Amino acid sequence: MSALWARALGERLPLPRRVADQEAACHALARWLAAAQDAGGDGASAWHDARRQTWAAAYPEVSGYIIPTLFDFARDFAASDFRERALRMADWSCAVQLPDGGVRAGLMDAPQVVSTVFNTGQSLFGWARALEETGEPRYRESLRRAADWLLCAQDEDGAWRRFGSPFSAPPPNAYNTRTAFGLARAAEALSEPRYLAAARRNVDWALGQARPNGWLPQNDLEDATQPLTHTIAYALRGILEVAARDRGPGLEAVATAAHALARAQRRDGALPGRLDADWNSAARWSCLTGNAQLALVWLRLAELTGEADWTTFARRTLDFNLRSLRLAGPVGMAGGVPGSHPFDGPYMRFRYPSWAAKFMLDALLLRRRMS
Predict the structure, then answer these.
(1) Cβ-based burial of 150 (10 A; exposed 0-12, middle 13-18, buried ≥19)
(2) Minimal CA–CA distance to 79: which of 47, 127, 122, 33?
(3) How many distinct structural domains can be found in the chain?
(4) Tens digits of residue pLDDT in 332-359
(5) Of 13, 77, 216, 345, which has the most beta carbons under 10 Å away?
(6) Nearest to 141 by CA among 199, 180, 186
(7) Is residue 11 part of a domain?
(8) Residue 219 contacts residue 212 (beta carbons within 8 Å)
(9) What is the crossing angle of helices 250-264 and 193-209, to 10°?
(10) Is residue 165 part of a domain?
């Protein structure tokens, strides 16, 4: 039996009660992100395949939204080398931006090179933060070109029905509210209100699709009848952050969904990896990325509403992830967050996604600042 399958079988047993120290976990996650950047080459980020013991090709979308995480870690832990890493990643993102202003779908070795709405929206986060940190014109130019491309691609009702990824479910996708969040950040960094107006239109469209219980249709990469917590959290965070910036109606809708998700939380703190339209479990495994992202949603709700109860749900799911985190081991695995728990679950099976480490570190840094 391979060590990977042995780990997957072992993870079907109850997790140990020991929770990894939060400070040590932050440093381990940051070291993993540094290793992923070194593997990506030229400043980009990659993810790790534990079964093949290889790193994937560089990933423009995820590199874009990892940049703020590196800046945050550098600030919170006085780690100037991570600020330099953030700037290298921002420069790389500028270099691979497509001529039309968009960002390509998939990895750098993907068979099709096409601008894609979601991937472009995620790159806005990196350029906006790099511009705020440095004032450099190259980040301003990339940010403006990408945001303008998104506005041209948007339909009048706020949805994006063109330029979906050829590697996932066709548009429109509710999780593109995360792209709207990126436009809201572009609006802040560039003092450009039309980007926030476009973000609001998309959120209004998504809220118009929502069911009374807060569930959003068309909100998964593959199966919209039982979406991943990963895409559920993308959508909720996007709605929440746009609402926080323009005092829109999304806060109540997110709270409705967040309460339902809290009821779906298992006794050990994890969420099922997929949930159906009634917020019932549709998976026995857990998506660790989605756990971290939903912790961020709960923490942000606590910040925005002043209701401390939200932090209880966040703490429980973060502690689950911390109990599954291995701080030591081979490069590519130590400090990495697996796609699924158990390790052989269907989401990124036997892989360590760079976005999982990013969102876990984001959540721990926010929890640390709130404590």
Answers:
(1) buried
(2) 33
(3) 1
(4) 999 999 999 999 999 999 999 999 999 9
(5) 216
(6) 186
(7) no
(8) no
(9) 50
(10) yes
At 121-138, the pLDDT tens digits run 999 999 999 999 999 999
Tokens of 18: 């020991």
Identity of residue 90: A
Write the secondary structure of 280-348 as one string of H (helix), E (strand) and C (coil).
CECCCCEEHHHHHHHHHHHHHHHHHHCCCHHHHHHHHHHHHHHHHCCCCCCCCCCCCCCCEECCCCCCC
- Whether residue 349 contacts residue 50, with contact meaning beta carbons closer than 8 Å, is answered with no
Quick check: 287 and 228 in contact, CB under 8 A? yes
> 228: helix, coil or strand?
strand
Q: For residue 105, what are the CA distances in angstroms to 47, 87, 163, 215? A: 16, 22, 9, 27
β-strands 351-352, 48-49 pairing: antiparallel
HSE at residue 9, side-chain half, CA atoms within 13 A, is: 6
CATH code of 342's domain: 1.50.10.10
What SS3 string covers 91-112?
Answer: HHHHHHCCCCCCCECCCCCCCC
Tokens 């894609």, residue located: 116
- Residue 92 in domain: yes
Domain that holds residue 182: 19-366
Q: Which two tokens stand for residue 189?
A: 């960094």
Beta-strand (E) ranges in the chain?
48-49, 54-55, 286-287, 340-341, 351-352
- Residue 4 in any domain: the answer is no
